[in-house]
Design brief:
alpha/beta, FAD/NAD(P)-binding domain, 2 domains, five-stranded parallel beta sheet, disordered N terminus
Length: 721
């Protein structure tokens, strides 16, 4: 596989222009020739191409059919995605249909009736646009679809909600292309099919545990650092494998960033029905982009459902981990809430700390001198009543963008200090509650929620990276765009900002970014942020901060902005992976010494000199072009579990990436990331970049490419002891 990072993957990019209409056909190229076999056969070929040893031979849990049993519904239990039977009257059903996504409804009708004509007629989606749940279907077309569906749903209800045989693989592929408004290429269908879980099973569940003898498993204790979404997922998979494990979590429960970040207005900016575990039902969300309390509760419920809590040590932090070459084991030093320190023995350590967990405070003179309460947004002080207070919000990135509109009407005055304005795009669903009709459909209509998930996933699937690549033939000397397409995107984003601030030219000038769109984290706005800036008690300050004094914030022009409370919405130590822990590997080298400001890992997961150490959401794996971090975590945890299987089944003591594999991957990574918009010279302040302006945080890979790489570990890339 080593050569594929340099040779094959220069030509096997899956290309699809899903910006706008999503009308281009995805194309997979393999060593110069187009792949045009049936997609089901291609799934196995694609996996074998990336990993020469067959997945089935290694029993990773990913060796079952990608679609599972789509044509063999289980007789003993109803598929959890088939919807609960119902007896609602005709009027209730008709009212519910007025609030559904018609494209997803039409796919549900195929399952409900067994008739594929629902997706083969003139009533069909027009464009696959992100956050457009109706896919630009004319109102009249939507109405006719609802009318036809009502009769079919009533008949289904009256027959006892019995489903016909499930659609076969070819029809599932056709349904994907229907929603994509373009042929979905054979090469990417397996990825989407795996995410849909239409057979109701968890296609990545670990089934190889019994292959490993009980004594070997008992000796393979795993320490997982962190119980956010990735740590919790890791615990679920380790339990399925029958391995002993302990999750060390510094807070009092699961959820990670969704436990820490409880500031007013905190919400997810990936659609809720996609920002969740693919193997769990997702019909329960109350909003299309849910707020923090609901996300926190979700992770708590999942923890309880899978009984992972019994293996967790909450209010405990990892201080250090040291590899013992003689024993081939890790010694993990932890500290409890009472300050007591003890040591845990582990065969394997998995870091699931995330990259955005350590708050970063700005380096401002006098920061300790402020007379009132001052805190980071990720450490929100619930004891403070902001009513009638003068609040200084320092920072207006992703957190500040949500925070300001949520508190503006409560405070007496809000001063927002913003170093760099953010690009944003309109999303009218951003604060929208899921209406009762759509919630009814998600509870009852067969596979409706699954296809709604696909509708959220596909337009943001990152099938191509090319729109993020700097065009060497494009004149970017003004620093405003990196390609013709990027220039068009700039106009679209700029039109939205202008439409909201046209009556405030002073704010418009302050709010228009002077760097290429998508070069930093792109935000979503339903009008709340830009409307907030126009409120009479809100002031947007773009002048640099000179110092903080007891009375407030002094800017470079000498103006004192008086404040009663300061909130630092200044982001996180994104480049400081596993900070502040001391991780010591072979030869006494620490991870901090080896990495410096250039953290690198094979696939962002494993690191030379650190045997049996694996990272989830490690270096170079943050996403800025598609999918979601939960999807990314599922890929990475799948790979890590495959690696653990290889370690234990092979009777090995330890495994570490080879120098050849590591160098090939990191060389390819550095070459690719340097060509992307996030590395552009015009971006002066970005948490993606280190102090030298280089990037070791963001993934430059098309989502399907990385999905393929993480299907199973390639043993030839590792040295085993």
């Amino acid at each position: 596989m080593v050569e594929e990072f340099g040779a094959h993957h220069g030509t096997d990019r899956v290309a699809s222009d899903v910006i706008g209409a999503g009308a281009a056909t995805a194309v997979a190229e393999e060593s110069g020739h187009r792949v045009r076999s049936t997609w089901l056969k291609l799934a196995a070929q694609h996996i074998a191409f990336i990993h020469p040893l067959s997945i089935a031979a290694r029993g990773t849990g990913a060796d079952r059919s990608i679609l599972g049993k789509t044509s063999e519904m289980a007789d003993t239990a109803r598929n959890p995605h088939a919807g609960a039977p119902f007896t609602d009257d005709d009027a209730t059903i008709a009212a519910a249909l007025e609030e559904v996504s018609v494209p997803a409804l039409l796919c549900s009708m195929v399952h409900l009736t067994g008739d594929p004509s629902w997706i083969r007629g003139d009533i069909r989606p027009q464009y696959a646009m992100l956050n457009d749940f109706q896919s630009s279907m004319p109102v009249e077309m939507q109405a006719e679809a609802r009318r036809l569906a009502l009769a079919a749903i009533i008949e289904y209800r009256d027959s006892g909600c019995e489903l016909p045989p499930a659609p076969g693989p070819e029809l599932i592929h056709e349904m994907m292309s229907f929603l994509a408004v373009a042929p979905v290429d054979d090469a990417v269908v397996p990825m989407f099919a795996e995410d849909l879980h239409l057979d109701g099973a968890d296609s990545r569940a670990i089934e190889w545990g019994e292959e490993i003898s009980a004594d070997v498993r008992a000796d393979a204790h795993v320490v997982v650092i962190g119980c956010g979404e990735s740590g919790l997922l890791t615990g679920i998979r380790l339990a399925q494998a029958g391995l002993p494990f302990t999750i060390i979590e510094k807070t009092d429960g699961p959820g990670g960033t969704w436990r820490d970040n409880r500031y007013p207005g905190a919400r997810v900016d990936v659609g809720s029905h996609f920002y969740c575990y693919s193997f769990e039902p997702s019909e329960h969300w109350s909003e299309y982009f849910v707020r923090q309390p609901e996300l926190r509760s979700y992770f708590e419920r999942v923890l309880e459902k899978y009984d992972v809590g019994a293996n967790c040590r909450f209010n405990t932090e990892v201080v250090a981990a040291t590899w013992d070459e003689a024993t081939g084991r890790w010694s993990v030093e932890v500290r409890g809430a009472d300050g007591a320190v003890d040591t845990i023995d582990a065969r394997i350590v998995i870091s699931a700390t995330g990259a955005l967990n350590a708050p970063k405070l700005p380096d401002i003179d006098g920061i300790e001198s402020f007379a009132g309460p001052a805190f980071h947004s990720a450490r929100w002080d619930d004891s403070i009543d902001l009513a009638g207070k003068r609040v200084a919000q320092i920072g207006a990135g992703a957190s500040g963008f949500q925070l300001a509109p949520a508190i503006a009407d409560e405070v007496e005055h809000l001063s927002i200090f913003q170093r760099t304005p953010q690009w944003m795009f309109p999303n009218m669903n951003y604060h929208r509650a899921v209406p009762e009709g759509d919630a009814w459909a998600m509870r009852h209509l067969p596979f409706y929620t699954r296809w709604f998930r696909f509708l959220m996933f596909y337009p943001a699937a990152g099938l191509s990276i090319e729109n993020s690549r700097v065009d060497p033939n494009f004149d970017d000397s003004d620093g405003m765009a990196i390609s013709e397409m990027n220039s068009i995107t700039r106009a679209w984003f700029g039109d939205w900002i202008t439409s909201q601030l046209a009556d405030h030219p002073d704010l418009l000038e302050l709010s228009m970014p002077q760097y290429p769109p998508t070069a930093k984290r792109t935000l979503q706005d339903n009008g709340s942020w830009l409307t907030c800036l126009k409120k009479p008690n809100v002031e947007l300050v773009r002048t640099g901060i000179s110092r903080i004094v007891p009375e407030g914030v002094v800017t470079d022009d000498g103006v004192l902005h008086e404040a009663d409370v300061i909130c630092f919405a200044t982001g996180f130590r994104h480049n400081d992976f596993l900070w502040p822990m001391t991780i010591t590997g072979r030869g006494g080298v620490t991870l901090r010494e080896q990495w410096g400001e250039e953290p690198e890992a094979l696939l962002g997961i494993s690191v030379p000199n650190f045997p049996n150490l694996f990272c989830v959401y490690g270096p170079g794996t943050n996403l800025a072009h598609g999918a979601s971090l939960i999807f990314q975590s599922e890929c990475q945890v799948n790979y890590i579990m495959s690696a653990i299987h290889e370690l234990l089944a092979g009777g090995h003591r330890s495994m570490v990436p080879t120098a050849e594999a590591f160098d090939a991957y990191t060389s390819r990574y550095r070459s690719e990331i340097a060509q992307m918009v996030w590395a552009h010279w015009s971006v002066k302040h970005s948490h993606f970049k280190n102090s030298d302006g280089r990037i070791f945080t963001i993934s430059p890979w098309p989502i399907p490419t990385y999905w393929g790489w993480t299907r199973a570990v390639d043993p030839s890339q590792y040295e085993f002891d």
